[in-house]
Write a structure and sequence with these properties.
3 domains; alpha+beta; Immunoglobulin-like; six-stranded mixed beta sheet; single chain; 275 residues
């Protein structure tokens, strides 16, 4: 009986060691991930170096009123929805109004996506890099994701740097800023374009903030998500067995985006002006 107790005690000690080793391993992995994701603080950082306007398709992030910092993590609050194989407009600027009069130092921009989801931005995950030293302060391009295997959500990083396009997702910058977002890839669906074109909405502009959205047929469930121009969610609402929805955008004047998704997988976005 005593031998059995000794064996049990030895097994218990071994189990404790195994558990402790596993906990230490997890902690090391978490620290490693954090180190790989967190960019090095830039030299010579100034508030005028911030990325204030970032657009991919209908997604627009204006961060002029955000905290002045060299790194902003918007992965939990700002999601970029794109369809694989579809071309999107890309706009990058360090000015809130990228198409107005802009002066100051010229910056370059680079964008990475952590496609293999390993918390490390590799060289082959660089999807955009550009610098124009001729006095260009706003970059207007197009971007397309052609890999048909892409599906789901990934971390996207955009960086700018004075006098050059950043060549590293984490190394120190000379001026400039780093911003992280979530990008959500969906399969290209021609039905989405048809669905988006079929959406009727009125009034636009709206003076009260209320509008009516009409769909081409009745759906079991329709989810409407209102976002401001910074990508933040204003409100979300689900409706059952309907083709007509009353939507309240925001009380403040400005543009809003209303995302409409159905239980059948269709998705559309409309742009509303609240006067």
């Amino acid at each position: 009986m005593q031998c059995h107790l000794v064996v049990c005690e030895l097994n218990l000690k071994k189990m404790k060691k195994i558990i402790l080793s596993f906990i230490i391993f997890i902690a090391i992995v978490e620290v490693s991930i954090a180190q790989n994701l967190t960019p090095t603080s830039p030299l010579n950082f100034h508030e005028s170096h911030q990325i204030q306007y970032f657009q991919i398709g209908d997604f627009v992030s204006i961060t002029s009123d955000a905290e002045i910092t060299e790194y902003s993590d918007f992965t939990e609050t700002k999601i970029i929805n794109v369809e694989v194989g579809k071309q999107y407009d890309l706009v990058l600027s360090k000015e809130e109004n990228p198409f107005g009069s802009i002066s100051g130092n010229t910056f370059g921009y680079s964008i990475w996506v952590d496609f293999n989801d390993d918390a490390i931005f590799s060289e082959n995950e660089l999807i955009y890099s550009k610098y124009d030293g001729s006095g260009v302060f706003t970059y207007e391009d197009t971007i397309e994701f052609t890999d048909s295997s892409l599906e789901g959500k990934y971390r996207l990083r955009v960086r700018n740097e004075w006098g050059i396009a950043p060549d590293s997702p984490t190394d120190v910058l000379w001026g400039g800023e780093t911003e992280d977002y979530t990008i959500n890839f969906t399969e290209k669906n021609s039905g989405n374009s048809e669905f988006n074109n079929s959406i009727k909405f009125y009034p636009n502009p709206t003076s009260t903030g209320m509008l009516t959205v009409s769909l081409n047929e009745i759906y079991d469930e329709v989810t409407t998500t209102v976002r401001n121009v910074y990508g933040g969610i204003v409100r979300t609402h689900k409706s059952k067995m309907t083709n007509k929805i009353d939507v309240q955008v925001g009380l403040s004047s400005g543009f809003y985006f209303v995302e409409i998704s159905t239980s059948t997988g269709l998705f559309g976005i409309i742009k509303i002006l609240k006067q």
